[in-house]
Amino acid sequence: VNGGENGGAEEHGEESSPNKTAHELDLSSLAFQNGAHTMTNKKCHLPTSSWRAMHPGYEEVHVPASRSTPDPSEKLVPIADLPEWTHDAFKGMTMLNRVQSKMADVSLKSSENLLLCAPTGAGKTNVAMLSVLNVLGQYRREGVDDVMDDDDDTGKASKHEGHFDLSAFKIIYVAPMKALVQEVVKNFSKRLGPYGITVRELSGDSSLTRQQISETQMIVTTPEKWDIVTRQGEGRAYTQLVKLVIVDEIHLLHDDRGPVLESIVARVIRQVETTAEPVRLVGLSATLPNYADVATFLRVDPEKGMFFFDHTYRPVPLQMQYLGITERNAFRRFQLQNEICYEKATGQRKQGNQMLIFTHSRAETGKTAKALRDLAMERDELSLFVREGGATQEILREELSTVKNADLKDVLSYGFAIHHAGMARPDRELVEDLFADGHIGVLCCTATLAWGVNLPAHAVIIKGTQIYDPSKGRWAELSPLDVLQMLGRAGRPQYDTEGEGIIMTAHSELQYYLSLTNLQLPVESQMIKTLPDHLNAEVVLGTIQTLDEAVDWLSYTFLYVRMLKNPNLYGISDKAAAEDPTLQHRRRDLAHTAACMLERSHLVRYDRRSGALQTTPLGRIASQYY
Hints:
By secondary structure, the protein is an alpha/beta fold. Helix 20 (about 530-540) crosses helix 24.
């Protein structure tokens, strides 16, 4: 095995004696200590019309909504222009939106790898749908007439029957959260039902038998679960049928779970190169500054397959406020947060708007709602939340008798409500319905509401960004993914011209959240932390048998793309980077270190002289049950 794409001829001299060049590195010192919270940009540039204000106890930064005027030459694609057989997938829609129209051709009519960066709510799901239809189109049987006689007796189900070779392909959709996986399954099974396609969920909650997998055309799964399936050799029977892999929320690369995505994608690309069977990769992501790096990693052609849409493509422009709290005293800080929440809430209610307040524990939802109610009583402003003698008051009073949760019972009649996963389902559904009908003015909830239930409000407050992380046993910052998802709930597409998002955080974290939401936070690779685990998996699979192959495998990772771009950040001196443009030595050192660590734990046998890697029974177990 030569150096892969780096033209192995001139390197063969060095490669025959690998041990001279390989050094062991200290991986833990190279890994990013803060994980997803790593921030590599020094400055953050805000739009010109932003302003700051100091208040006692906190500083406030306002960033106005960014709007854009669509280019008059920009045409929206009507659904009627798409091929006749695709219409069933877009029932009830007449037009594609701006993002989808720009991508309709490349996603439906070509098999280019794609990367789409667009804000939450810009309709990325439909772009995924178009790429699914592209695969269907390839397996559409020739010579079947498009024009069928419109006999209503035969029913709709048989319209596409026999038109598609359903056993010839599989589609994998990778989504980061179980709640999202379930949503995608619901959405796609409804829309792909007419074509006879089965969509199933494969996540920690539900595993599929071999038979079920062979009957399923589209599998929606979480990164970890798909990693496990492809790690087990028996998964190969159907991974060879995979024609399309859609990775949703690919900016998760920055998160602690990022390496799993790197591992999956690298595995797909290497499989394509060894078997020459093409697999199309489609990455969907939120807006991020270094999208070009992610495109390189996904092997996307920057001319044809890379699409970037900035905040002006949000369906509802978002006006942001960032509050950095400087108050030291914990008790005062708690009061201050509630007072700020209350001021923002009364401001919204005076304009007749509803708002969501995200808190970070279940108990906190009730405490916040009660604190707001007590403030309203003190200041005699209860009528802002529920008008005396109005219809809302009657409805809330009637519903009160059915409520089980004590905290909810306490505040509901005042127009406040709480929502979290620990409540009984009837209570949760009641709250969702009342909020959707506009009877509840202020809803205090936990982050689960942002992922599972689509309840947009005019304004969203994120009350504090610290969340208790039981795995670390301390308070940690919220993951950026959660923050973006919560802000995605601000602004209701049908009614509002703009939404408002308010983040309350410690003053020291202000810079981070400004960077995150203003397109300044580059996505980095977290691979180094878990390198030995992923190397072990590949050794067990048999895709890596020597150190040279491990070095080659590293060139398929996002880590490699970022190391080339920003060597200093990954602990490589400028001199070393200049002398070794493909970072061959660095990758060798990394692979060698990981191999040594695995050997010390008895997970592989590593022959330092020949560089051969063999798995052990222990390694096999570690790979399958990680």
